């Protein structure tokens, strides 16, 4: 009697993934691990160089990180912007404890236009000075030139959404005006959009000065089609000023609809 015929079990092609699928999966996992564990500080010198070029000033970073995704989040910590020549080498014009910039990667892939939904600055500080023997350190000729070129090509200009400032501060010293005062700067969320709030105290023209200002979102300064709201109150010595209303084009100070109230001896000559 012959041996019974034996047949091998047919292989189920559906039970095994194609090699290209496995390879693609491993590639995606590798990219994900690289994005998580890669030290993005390798790019810190390049980022600092790119930031320095338009400002015409040396910019340094203590730490740089990048969080990939549909919206990339670039984070720089310990940002410092140097003063121009003529200032002490160890002085700084500005520092930022933490700067986070969100970039819409999908918008870039579709349109090749840089779209920045949000910029967040944590504890930025500015030391603004105008010494008697040199130009003010808040003047940026290189940046002004770049801004003029960008204005000529609005399509190439980045589209920026929300700008948030947390615990900002500025110290302003201008000897020729006998001015030495501090400004606290922050953005606040309000119904209808964000606003910027400023509070000042110190001296101006040798007299004590205090001030409070509330305005619209900083980035809406560029929107000539939307009136920019202003509410400013100043007290300088015995004189006070209250300015409230809107300006259609703040950068050109055009289309102003403002109410001005002044009082004090400084303004008596203006009321005669």
Automatic annotation (TrEMBL):
InterPro entries: AsmA-related (IPR052894)
GO cellular component, one term: plasma membrane
Top-rank taxon: Bacteria
Keyword Transmembrane: yes
Transmembrane segments: 20-40
Gene Ontology BP terms: regulation of protein targeting to membrane
Record has Isomerase as a keyword: no
Keywords assigned: Membrane, Transmembrane, Transmembrane helix
Name listed for the protein in its UniProt record: AsmA domain-containing protein
């Amino acid at each position: 009697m012959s041996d019974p015929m034996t047949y091998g079990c047919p292989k189920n092609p559906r039970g095994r993934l194609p090699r290209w699928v496995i390879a693609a999966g491993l590639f995606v996992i590798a990219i994900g691990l690289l994005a998580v564990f890669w030290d993005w500080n390798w790019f810190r010198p390049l980022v600092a160089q790119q930031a320095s070029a338009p400002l015409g000033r040396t910019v340094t970073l203590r730490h740089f990180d990048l969080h990939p995704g549909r919206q990339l989040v670039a984070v720089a910590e310990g940002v410092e912007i140097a003063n121009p020549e003529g200032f002490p080498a160890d002085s700084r014009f500005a520092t930022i404890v933490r700067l986070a910039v969100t970039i819409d990667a999908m918008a870039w892939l579709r349109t090749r236009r840089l779209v920045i939904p949000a910029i967040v600055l944590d504890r930025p500080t500015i030391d603004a000075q105008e010494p008697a023997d040199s130009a003010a350190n808040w003047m940026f000729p290189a940046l002004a030139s770049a801004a003029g070129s960008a204005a000529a090509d609005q399509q190439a200009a980045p589209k920026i959404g929300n700008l948030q400032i947390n615990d900002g501060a500025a110290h302003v010293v201008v000897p020729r005006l006998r001015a030495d005062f501090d400004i606290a700067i922050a953005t606040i969320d309000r119904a209808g959009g964000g606003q910027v709030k400023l509070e000042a105290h110190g001296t101006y023209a040798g007299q004590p000065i205090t001030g409070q200002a509330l305005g619209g979102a900083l980035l809406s300064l560029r929107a000539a089609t939307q009136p920019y709201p202003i509410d400013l109150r100043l007290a300088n010595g015995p004189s006070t000023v209250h300015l409230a209303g809107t300006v259609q084009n703040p950068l050109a100070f055009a289309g102003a609809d403002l109410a001005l109230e002044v009082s004090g001896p400084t303004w008596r000559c203006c009321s005669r």
